[in-house]
Predict the structure.
Amino acid sequence: MERVGIIGVGQTKYEREKRETFGEMVYEVVKKALDDAGITIEDIDNVVTVSNDFWDGRTISCMAVADASGAYGKDTSTVEGDGAFGALYGLMRVLSGAYNNTLVVAHCKGSESYSSAITNAAFDPIYERILGIDAITSSALQAKRYMTKYLLNEEQFAKVSVKNHKNAKNNPFAQLPLDITVDDVLNSRMLSDPIKLLDASPISDGAAAIILSAERQAKEVSQNPVWIKGVGYCSDAYRIGDRDLAEPNSLRRAAKDAYKMASIENPLKEIDVAEVYDAFSYQELLWMEGLNFCRSGEGGKLIDEGVTEMGGELPVNPSGGVISAHPVLVAGLTRIIEAVLQIRGDAEKRQVPNAEIALAHGINGMCGQSHCVWLLGK
Amino acid sequence: MTIYIKNEIDLKRGYKTMDWKEDVKEMVYQGRIKVPYTWSVGEVGSRFFIELRDKKKIWGDKCPRCGTVFVPPRKVCSKCYSNIGEWVEVGTKGTLLTFTVVRYKNNLQSRDAPFAYGIIKLDGADTGLLHLLGEVDLEQINIGMRVEAVFGEDRKGEILDIKYFRPLKEA
Amino acid sequence: MGNRVGIVGVGQTHHRSKRSDVNGQEIINEAVSRALAGAELTIEEIDAVVIGNMDHFEGINYVDMWSVDGSGGYMKPIMKVTTGGTTGSTVAAAGYYQAASGLFDTVLAIGWEKNSESDTSAAIATCANPILERETFAGAIGPLAAEYSMYMKKYGATEDDAHLAAVRDHNNGANNPYAHLRKRVTLDDVRNSPMLAYPIRLLDMCPRSDGACAVIYASENKARKITDTPAWVVTTTTRHDYTHFGDADWTIMQTLEEASKAAYKKAGIKDPLHEFDVMELYLPASSCAVKWMESLGVCERGEAPELIREGVTDMDGELPVNPSGGVICTNPIGATALIRVAEAALQIMGKADKRQVPDVEKALATGFGGCSWSDVMVLSSSKPR
């Protein structure tokens, strides 16, 4: 595989009820990514936008950002799903040999939509939707299954929330930097057992963009591209009743493929920093099992032992994670951007020293049906 | 109606606010998309609902290749992609795989919070069925408990023909 | 550089106005099963899946996730791409790039739609800017009608020129067992069909259909093992236009012109009329069958009416267009442009049965959609350089 680098990144500050329109947010991050790469829009030969008609309240939602993304007159396409999948498609377009500098941009304004109705529409219209199930209640079913099968407790979930909100204090783009305790989490309002308000990610608005470039081009335009070492993605069964929700099998497969490509044998040891999609606190623990940072059921041990704290063996979510800012569709791309900043040494107050291999993770669908794993390095 | 652009990007000085914007209060446009939908249930699903409606029976189907018994039934095996032809009646009793007690309200939910969702593995099935739990002390639900389907009186051929699952009172 | 890629199998449903016997996942399965059978492959041999449709036509969010029960995507890499009317060709391009990337040997591309399940016009109207244009814009016919009116005035084309193209496509569709509308029509039938929006009549316009299409792409080494006659992908290109309707120039089909020019350049095509043996074009109305031939460089500006009148694009003409009956016979929107690619591939593979054009070596397929987006894909019987 030809080497592909990420040569520029840009993100907005994530906030609830941002005043900017979709187009304005997209323009802001595209401009930032171009400036970061030191190139202009003329140097971009194709654009992948990421949007979703439900979240945007608009059919053919990609139309609304065609001009703001700088795609006019260029080849373009649109991925509907998490931004990490949009980035994957961008990567494949570069690898196909058809394109050089590829821009990937995602946007979402959760505050302008009705999350329960939109995530309810992801469930089967014939057998499930009428029950009123949504992202929070289905995730609660998963959390309950997970903690019962492997004997985890709510304190362990709460510790993830405490750690990540604390990390967010070092990230100027995060929405919820918080000084909270385990008791604060445990005493916050119960949404759906065992998920409490502080176990859940917020409603967020924002946008993010990256620029990918094949080695042949990347070295010309960028001083220090961050190289893509491995990728993998995979989907589990659709219905949550068809899956054992305590077993992230599709993540295991995606991670295996990515590790193989990057020649990683011991992820806990070889990876220096990870940004994972913790839409709810329990997910960070469950996804770490899927990522093979530990064995099944041992996710709680990693948080108990401080392995994933900033000074630990494998810091997870130095940015504060998705629990500190959750622009749907954007969040996976944000994880990639944070991983890029870590490898470049540009992560400022949230920098993990000497990060050489970083992992970024995106999810799609309900209860982590589909996962996408990226490994980045120098 | 105009939406004003808040930031102008100045390459040298970064992002700055322009003076005239201080007088502008942005407007937000309210909209609602209402499009009528129908969803074909298909032959397999229709039989499932007819049996539920007319006979209060729950049917699954069994993949000839991997042997998985699916509830609700499906035409093609979700796992090994074989065509499924064999119908299997499963029990109206089953085991609770997981549950949650919902404490917040919204207009999509089919009953008022607090109430409980569960995923139930019916006897004879290999997959779980997402449904509601009822006639139960919300603080006494536990994974692994035995439950049974309670059918509605006025059944229409939909998943809520099963009103909910309740704890099984063993005879 | 990337792998060369060939299309090694295609499958589609028998398209109908309403398929109430199957749900969405099942209609997808029909197309996929036929594609696999045609290529003599099993689902285990598919490395990745890409799927597309339009969200608001069925009201199902995260369709790629939902589709897994029908697409065979269980424990496989799957993603969704979507761009409105061009969704089918967007899926086609994604299948190609994914297989060319070297990450996968075989990629299954799926387009589908069950238009009968919603109010399509209501759903389409929400593509307009909600603040500025949604209240005033309605459906797809108006702009196409206005466009042809301008064209008739400028070049002396007639309503009959468009009707002739409608007769061509409808009669071709009668040879296609998968087509939704398969009734032979005469020029008088078209002339006498109800007026929808001057100058477009009912038989000039595409229907809305329930259907699905699947296309299997394979990298060079794998393609050779699967079939002796892959349809090689030479190149594919996308161009698109404005965000607001008022920004567009409606007198020309600029994006199709730009996309085809760019594709011809990459494919080394200088004389499309003589170098292509067949075209499967996304023509939403018969008026486009006239005017857009000029945008495709098949003839000079203003010459298209004569091209149609002389039968150049008929089945026995120099450059047959839409042997399948095209979009005015079949239109499951998310699948429509992928069907163009599938039909073009069948022509190259020599598997188009009663609609086969003899000895096809080069074929063009196009997609059109959500606000002047144009996609083109060039296929060839010989391996690209």
Summary: Chain A has a mean pLDDT of 96.
